[in-house]
Records
---
Amino acid sequence: MSAVLEIQGLQKTYRSRKGVRKALDGFDMVVEAGQVHGFLGPNGSGKTTTLRTLLGLIRPNGGRMAILGREVPQALPEVAGSVGAIVESPQFFGNFSARDTLSLLADAGGVQRRRVDEVLELVGLRDRAGDRVKTYSLGMKQRLAVASALLKNPRLLILDEPANGLDPGGIREMRTLMRNLAESGMTVVLSSHILGEIQLICDSVTIIAAGRRVAAGGVAEVLARHASSSVRVRLESASDLTASAGALRDVGAQVVVDADHLMVSGLAQPSAITRTLAARGVYVSELSPVSVDLESVFLELTGTAPVEGEHRQVDQTVMAPTGPAQGGWGQ
Amino acid sequence: MSLYTAETRRLTKRRFTRFFLIGVVLLLGAIAAGMFISNQKNTPAVVAEAQAKADREYQQAVVQAEAERKTCESQPGSDCTQMWQPTREDFQAEWYMPPTFNFRKNFGDMVTTLAAILAMAAFVIGASFVGAEWSSGGMMNLLLWRPQRLKVLNTKLAALLAVLTAVTVALSALWTGLFVLIANLRGTLDGMTSGAWQSYLIMELRGLVIVLAAGALGFGLASIGRHTAVAMGVAIGVVVVLQAGLGTVLAMAQVKYIEMYLAPTWIAAWMNKSVELVDYNAPCIGANCEQPTMTLTWQMAGVGLVAALVLVVGTAMWTLRKRDIT
């Protein structure tokens, strides 16, 4: 499998009167051909900056980027015809209809006009194609943005938050569309905050925090790598929880005591739990491994899980835990 | 070429462009209608009536002057030699005629009027064409499709200038035809030699240059600020602060040739080939006590126009090349 998109050591620094902010700090990313690749990161982590830099809208301060094997931004004019992209929220001239908007883009890009109707059909805007864009809902504008990205029938499709504003039916349609496009050979890079969606439709992911890659690989691989192998333990009698926790800690386990169960990790075999507790005359009523999902991995890796009584700030991640640290204003 | 076609379509499809041009056409129509209504053709009957009125006025003036001279002479010691004696030339028939449109004498002002109105429209349309694209995000979309910043901006500018040229040429032809008609019906085309026609044609070409320059300046300013309002703000700022304010300050400071610092003077020099400025603050010179003068030529105005264009459009290109698009 060949890489359709490669980023190595990408750096972008913003300077202002408030100081210097490293939006991208040596970021790496690889997307293989034919994959649906999720690009995840908390707000302000550098996702949109990465996409804008890749597409020639922002000049990087360092690093290397390649699309379809060609170095960008130098070769961007040559590869642009094979790349369809929407970056951030969809933005169109409000007084033009969807058909006008797409036909103007088609003219500008040398795409045949009949393709306009094809993509309008594909994204479900056929019947509203003649209406002015300013009368569209956010979800309809999002569909139009996806249509504009698909107009070129690209080899690489980059979509920033494509499900934003879509209703549940629209999200499902978008999911199906992404899968169909990938099956037809198109490579799709999907930036989204809807982690359940990413887990459902993506083959691989890259997670970014504070401008750096914190995880990458196949979805299953990333989940496995970061699974905490915790086990939920319920006892016949809740009054035994505290004593049982002590016994398990004695054999080297990490134990969190909850109201009606224990969360146990750090033991190679769950059978060690039953053996230890049975030896003390305590019997287990439930012993179940806790499955890990992409959301919990994301929260763990980016350090953005909500903490009761605390208000996390936008730039506050596992890479930049507090205050005006690296990656935040004031450096 | 496909990008150029798309940008030409985009400009002409915009409702703002269409409505603004309709407004311009209505305004020009109102001016032409006003000229038609306020002028009359001098028929032989009108000329005869004016001649008779001039004669009557002359005779009355002669009688009155004679009476005043007698009164003067009746007073001992009075010097009556300097008293005004009416002449035929003081009562010309044309002064008693209703206004008539003399194409050769009056059409120059109409060409300047057309150029001024079209230049204002070109500035606003040019600014809106690129400014609305920036503020709506359309420019970013376009650059995702054609990631060649300077090519995109230059093509947009070329499309704007081409459309403005077509509109100006068409309206200039219409405007000329309309005033030929008005001159035929409510005035005269006397004196319109081939040289006079050529002179007006060249004046209209200079008007076209003003229109294109205004369009490019509006486009450039809105591109630098990435918003239509920036170009409009600069235009209003120049008019209010630099022109009205500067004029007042310079007048108070009794600066020589104040008009030289005001844009309309240079535009007049460009359109009328030259403008003579008089320094009213200086002591008069010569036997006839004349104020010193200075002449601004269309070549000097042309250099100023090119300098302004290079500065604004060049800065727009440079900023697009250098700045991030966020």
Note: Chain B touches chain A at residues 2-3, 5-7, 9-10, 13-16, 132-133, 136-138, 140-148, 324-326 (CB under 8 Å).
---
Amino acid sequence: MQAFLHQLLSGLANGSIYASVALALVMIFKATHHVNFAQGELAMFSTYVAYTLIHAGVPYWGAFVITLVFSFAIGVAIERLLLRRLRHASALTVVIVFIGLLVIFNGLAGPLFGFTIKEFPTPFAPNASYGSTYLSPHEVGMIGVTLIVLAIVFAFFRFTRLGLAMRASAENPQSSRLVGIRVGWMLALGWGLASVLGAIAGMMAAPSVFLEPNMMVGIVLYGFAAALLGGIDNPWGAPIGGFIVGVLENLAGAYVVGSHLKLALALAVIVAVVVFKPSGLFGRTVVVRV
Amino acid sequence: MTMVSATADIASAPARRISGRRLWLAALLVFAVVVPLVSSGYHVFQLTQIVMYAIAILGLNLLTGYSGQISLGNGSFYALGAYTAAILMTNAKLPYWATPPIAGAVCFVAGLAFGRSVTRLEGLYLALATYALGVATPQILKLDVLERWTGGNQGVVLSKPTSPFPSLLNDDQWLYFFCLGAAVILFIVAWNIVRGRTGRALIALRNHPIAAGTMGIPVAAYKSATFGLSAMYTGVAGALGALIAGFVGPDSFQIILSIGFLVGGVVGGIASIFGVLFGAAFIELVPDLTKQVSEMSPSLRWLAELQYPAYGVLLIATMLLMPGGMAGLVRSVELRIARHLHHPPRT
């Protein structure tokens, strides 16, 4: 029982990472109907930036904030410089461009920051009082940070004018433009926020998966699974999907398939969702008019 | 659809251009036959790789370029083909020449099954599912249950095919002609599929699935059949790849393999048959060339590390600047020349 509880709770901790990644994916999907395949690699790149800053002597939370600003800038830049030109492009074109971005960031990380696997520090002391036999302080911190971030994101979208404008331009770009919202910039802002969410996920995940160019490959696969499971057009569903797949991953890893098949499990979740319930648990079923 | 349209030149291709095409084709065949006879072992190896990649990229083009189903996981079918060949040769003691057709058949069935289950998926969801398939492939290959056949992490070492006419062709040259034979057959089949009724049906369901269905094209059947066909091409390439390398191991089938096919397809022209050759030559030769250049002097060593970022930049640049790839570029230059000849600009 104790072992089960431990697996369950640390599944929630992993799930918090997937929740952030899934929310980032959903944010971009809502606004543009594209899935950002490069989300994970962007997050990995941001994590390297944080690592470099920390090693240059910047205190952890300082490096954390600078990294978020950097990630925001990169996200905005990608939207403004690249995705803007592809507004009317086919799904295939956009997917290929995202794969291009994925390869660029993945390929640059090695030459820029070194190929060796690095240890990434955690801001949560290993003997802190909030740790327990079930969850290490870092895992508690991971869940805490994710919940705070989710709360901020939802408050932002619910209670600020800017958040409202962003929701409006995702929902109905034409009418939004007519009432004076700068839809293009709202999209760029969405990209920036998504990239910030990814960076947080990366920095929270790095202490346990270690920092290397491919660290986000598996995580982002679970992020995809989470986003699909929660309903890819539902921002509330994404974090819930994240926590579900996190727990599922841990329980299945401990009791069913073993830890060697974690990626195949994500594949199974993705295929199962897209085949049996493409709208996910909380998504809207899309009806296409012929 | 901003992608190149393959329909345009079916309708408007003048007869004169077809004979021009024949000439090019003949030249290409002469090149493909003569050059390996006179070049060194390493170059023969490279040419063999190019022919093999061409088959794999052709499989991707049929699926993604023509029927519009985005696959980021064709490397999985390549792996399936390679492992099928390896297992047939080591466990069933089959001769090497029997493996590509069987690998093709196995992959056709697998592709059909996968295609059948994902046939309802629109572009993005399919891209996601195939991407997940591609990422998960090495893990599946390393499974303990399959280790008896797959060799787990170690993989399987194969004996290289030997030439039946050692006085005429050495082993490398023989393997090259073996691959070339397979490629010629598969190219002719693809050409006929694409230029006929089936090809038009595929293009129709790529450009407008709903309209295609209304016109009586069985969309689901065509989609899953194309998936099977694409997997078959890729599987044959995988079997040939295993013969060329003399080895299969799980880590040669990472997601970057599927991405490599995509790069080849996009650079050559994703909706073209002969652009494939350019794409295949590109993914085989460019990394090699970069490596050679970077070894020329220590100050150029950084070049070798930038192969993958360069792939990415190239993918994006091709999509932005010439979405038809090399084939599209050649086609538009051809058209421009033809127009110039028919209607010389007034002075």
Note: The beta strands of chain B are 156-157, 247-248.
---
Amino acid sequence: MLQIINLHASVNDKEILRGIDLNVNKGEVHAIMGPNGSGKSTLAQVLAGRESYNITKGQVFYEGKDLLAMAPEDRARQGLFMAFQYPVEIPGITNTYFLKAGLNAIRKHRGLEEFDAMEFLKLVKERAKFIEMDESLLNRPVNHGFSGGEKKRNEIFQMAILEPKLAILDETDSGLDIDALRTVSNGINKLRSKDNAVILVTHYQRLLNYIVPDFVHVLMDGRIVKSGGKELALQLEEQGYDWVRDDAENIAVNA
Amino acid sequence: MAYPADQHKKPSSTVRDWYLSNFERFEKSLNGEASSFIHDIRKSAIARFAEVGFPTTRDEEWKYTDVSPLTKVNFTPILQQNLGGISKNDIAPFTFNNLPSHRLVFVNGHFSKELSSVGVVPKGVKLGSLAEAVKSNDNVVKEHLTRHIHFSSNGFTALNAAFFYDGAFVVIPKGTILDLPIHLLFISSGFETEFVSFPRNLIVAEPNSQAAIIESYVSVKNNIYFTNTVSEIVLGENAIVEHDKLQIESNRAFHIGTTQIYQERSSNFISNAISLGGLLVRNNIMPILDGEGAEATLNGLYLGTGSQHIDNHTVIDHAKPHCPSHELYKGILAGKSKGVFNGKIMVRKDAQKTDAKQTNKNLILSDDASVDTKPQLEIYANDVKCTHGATIGQLDEEAVFYLRSRGLDVDKAKDILIYAFASDVIDRIKVEPLRDLLHQMIHDRLEEGRASA
């Protein structure tokens, strides 16, 4: 589904991604972990199409197509979704208005009929219940005045409405209390299927207690330096990142 | 700016002579009415105009707005009612989908009974033509007219006081709550020659009364004309008035409007001023908080496209203690348009515990659009809270990306964000059907603006 080959990206001439290779197949959940500043969020944003990053080298294929050549909205329309680490507040338009516009743009692209207000409302209510989101948030301005937890939940709610094939969750767990973490994780788990894939970008292992990944990757200084199964996350939790760094340096020296 | 810059070289005597000779014509047309108590005011006002003429950019209050283009056109005052062929069908598009309201219609500044529709109103409510009220020597007119805004303040108010004949006259008696809004619809018809109208409105909300007033300025044709309007609004103790001014003049028109508000103790005035039309526009909104606990809220939205120039001038005069005022003005400027916001807050010596908050935000959508924003605080009391802030910026790139990442194309994403920026002001309008319609209207305007950009 997603193939990242030797991806390099920089911002203001500073290279942040320095050769990422990653394959994600449908049905899989990949966790990308790493210390602050390692390039995790940059990777997520580059995949979603943020224009402030320069892609200096490498390729990304999504369902066989050149992802990097696609506009952000085309990526979304073809089933890619990123839950933002810092969802943007937009006072003046309601959550439902915004989502209806997005969903209908995606449906139109897929050759489906656009939802009218009634159909959309029905879907919204059903999905809000599904991920245990307070309905009162639906008619409030997008993320405006939401608590941190409400914002994160709103991202998952959007995901539930847009039904992506590939979801990239950028530190969706950061700043959540344990109850919020549990409901957000439940929401994500309910949306998992054999046909879609999830990339979890996270700083903490605790999210992986609730969403069990198939693969764990450690990102450091813009490269994936170690990959493994879910047990790698536990090891990181216990031992920190230093041992991975040492290993990686040894490999670099020997190579 | 899109106007010739030679205004200081040209002697302005010609434009003065033009209005002075038209004043003679006006006096003749008045016949017996020239003996009314109002006429002395007119005569002093024209004398004042002859003295001061129109302001120039050398006047501090007009620094950012060059009115010389409107001194170069000989606008003919419309002295008598002339419907110019306007029928009920013509006004239909301006009734906000037949908004339930008491509607007074003025064509080129003159009241039209045929086009107006006033429903059943509580006892004592007066809703009608100012000219009629003057003729019948109404006591409220005598007490208030021209008392709250002195004609001498500038050439435009002087000219209005010299030439005014008609406008709306509204009295909400003590303790009366008007359920339906009052809609004052000022419509300009399409004459061959350039013309000027001088609407004059007097609105008196007596103690403990409540009303919502919509004042809208529109035109049936996209022609050149000049509206020079003055409204005086008086709020008695504890009265509540929402005043929604909607300026959608022809985009070749000139609009100079002054709304002077006088507020007594614990009264509450809410102004929502929406400016969409006009080539050269100046809105003065000026409440005087002259009783303890009086409160004023001034919201404004201005949308400029093409070569429009829209100037918003507010003066909040805190004259007594414990008065809060809140102000939010937002501008969206595209094309080669120019916006001006000048927000003066005056806190007089007695006005302790004043709490004044002013915000002006501007969204600039093109390289050729610009805005001048200026807060102006004059504080003579020592225990007050006054805050002000102004921003001028472009669309937030991160927000655009957020919307695109949810499937919206880049144009749609920008539209939504611009619309959201404007909605913040529209949402403050309490007359619900009007608010909903304005949402649609702003939406359409923005789309038009982009299509023509």
Note: Chain B touches chain A at residues 396-399, 401-410, 412-413, 416-417, 419-424, 427 (CB under 8 Å).
